[in-house]
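A reminder from the course coordinator: this example appears on the midterm review sheet, so study it carefully.

Given structure:
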């Protein structure tokens, strides 16, 4: 985060920030990204629009930072001693209700990402690139343990596989992603692709 962003954000309390983020995510689910306005956020949170722009710069950063706030900590900190254990633990950190809510958020952003460069850039900066880097650290540990070959061609696609399963479950099966579905997917698809036996 830049020094200016840190300075801006330090002017409100963490509790107030969490309240604002919750309201933004509620609005995003209700009306979608394009119809979400800073005026609506200001009204919902009893804030001035000037304060919102001063703190976040614009709608794209506010929305993505709100989504980032829902992450239950860095996945790179998960270290169970096996890749299978790490991936199952990561999936287990969010219950099925939270996953369903996250799918709704992804749906709200899906079309908007293709039409808004500022949103796409904010998503890459705050969510995509950090998540990919965290997965790299997890996989690097698996390589050092000898679980995965360093030249395994599937290594470059682990995030694609997991995000794809999460995002397309509803479209293909007309059901939300669940812990049971994703852990089964990890054992049946992700681990075999990486050359890892699904059972410890």
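Designed residues:
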């Amino acid at each position: 985060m830049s020094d200016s962003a840190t300075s801006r954000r330090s002017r409100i309390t963490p509790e107030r920030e969490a309240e604002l983020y919750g309201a933004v995510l509620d609005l995003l689910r209700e009306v979608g990204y394009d119809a979400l306005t800073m005026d609506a956020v200001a009204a919902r949170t009893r804030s001035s629009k000037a304060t919102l722009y001063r703190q976040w710069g614009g709608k794209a950063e506010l929305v993505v930072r709100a989504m980032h706030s829902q992450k239950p900590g860095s996945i790179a900190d998960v270290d169970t001693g096996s890749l299978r254990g790490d991936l199952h633990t990561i999936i287990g950190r969010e219950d099925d209700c939270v996953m369903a809510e996250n799918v709704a958020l992804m749906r709200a952003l899906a079309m908007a990402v293709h039409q808004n460069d500022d949103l796409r850039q904010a998503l890459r900066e705050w969510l995509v690139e950090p998540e990919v880097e965290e997965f790299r650290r997890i996989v690097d540990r698996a390589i050092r343990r000898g679980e995965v070959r360093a030249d395994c061609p599937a290594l470059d696609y682990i995030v694609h596989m997991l995000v794809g399963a999460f995002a397309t479950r509803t479209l293909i099966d007309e059901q939300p992603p669940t812990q049971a579905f994703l852990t089964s997917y990890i054992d049946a698809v992700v681990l075999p692709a990486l050359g890892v036996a699904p059972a410890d």
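The CA atoms of residues 76 and 135 lie 7 Å apart. Confidence is low (pLDDT under 50) at residues 1-10.
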